[in-house]
What we know:
Layout: H1 10-14, H2 21-27, H3 30-35, H4 38-44, E1 48-52, H5 80-86, E2 90-96, H6 104-127, E3 132-134, H7 138-147, E4 150-157, H8 168-174, E5 177-181, H9 207-219, E6 222-224, H10 230-239, E7 244-249, H11 263-271, E8 275-278, H12 282-285, H13 292-304, H14 315-331, H15 339-353, E9 358-360, H16 380-388, H17 393-418
Parallel strand pairs: 1-2, 2-4, 3-4, 4-5, 5-6, 6-7, 7-8, 8-9
Helix pairs in contact: 4-16, 7-17, 13-14
Organism: Hyphomonas adhaerens MHS-3
Protein name: Membrane dipeptidase
GO molecular function: metallodipeptidase activity
Amino acid sequence: MRKMFLAVSALALLGACAPKAAETEAAAPVEAVEAATPAEIHATLMVLDSHLDTPANLSNPDFDIMADNPRKMGSVQVDVPKMTRGGLDGGFWVIFTPQGPLTDEAYEAAFKAATARQDEILKMVADHPDTFELAYSADDAERIAASGKFVVLQSMENSYPLKLDVSNLETFYDKGLRMVGLIHFRDNQFGGSATDFTSPDDKGLTDLGKDLVREANRLGLVVDGSHSSDASVRDMMEISTTPVILTHTGLKSVYDHPRNITDEFLKEIAAQGGVIQINAYSGYLEELEDSPERRAALEQLKVEFEGVNPFTADDETKARYMERMEAINAEFPAPRSTFEKFMEHMLRALELVGPDHVGMGADWDGGGGVEGMEDVSFLPKVTERLITEGYTEEDLKKIWGGNLMRVMRQAEAAKETTE
Ligand SMILES: [Zn+2]
């Protein structure tokens, strides 16, 4: 976050060009070289995450975005002190809506909930104008990061709240929405999900979903294929005039899970200029087994709430469910993946498609975080590891934000040609 403007050649000395150090040292002041530790290099970069679920915390009276909140794995991992320590400049703050029934009444409720969530993001920025600023474009984001404030871009995870009318996208766009993810855990009015086992694997976008992609292009929004079935992502790639992004996804070649993608598919996405942002959600990183005690507690919970969808239940039921879930998590914590496993996904993606097509979307506050990288304050470790692997400062710039800015600029340019 706090830019240090160190000697630009310093990283080269640390990384692949280390053997040249002796000859360069003779010509350059030695202090400049000594100053650049990986942590210091990290601090000079614009560091963005493409999927911050933090807005879900904003209405919680126990949460204060300005305070160093006690960390809760998977749900309280981002606030100003942690962002400052981790050198995180901001990113896409998510308007997430859980998938509910495809009925008029449920659509209305989802629209209201998403609007309220977006208003909470706007209020966070309005309440702390010296700390946060809304970004409406890639230029905005870069200017804000350089000014020392935190960048607040907005994205939607699950377009379910847009009802059956794609023109509703513009309502959210007008208040700053710049990226749209069409689908979540289950199929919806826009298309097939990667994790809806009640429908065929090859279910792609519906006609309405295809229209939504066209509407996103018309308005200049980036299209996000995370959570969508491969067939839906293929439809997005075919229809969208701009590259598709996967804001929080991993690789099947590291862990074969429906939320991850194959090496071949990643190459196709990259060939179109698309980007994968690597997820740090334990259940998608590797096969993990609950302890017998946790399994028994979860079974018991299922019996207690039989037939209830906790996401769409009434407030009182939801609160009761969350309370029970938190108690179980505290007593019998969910097994966690590790920093090394997360890096395995990231390094594999980099090896396959290179630093122009890889970034990070850890799913902070949405279930993300692993042992060794428990909240955003640990982000310099990723930079350190990438430097150890030989990635240069130019590579790091792209990985940490440059690629996101590129796809945003492509979406912005498409808007201009459509108008
Ligand atoms: Zn997600």
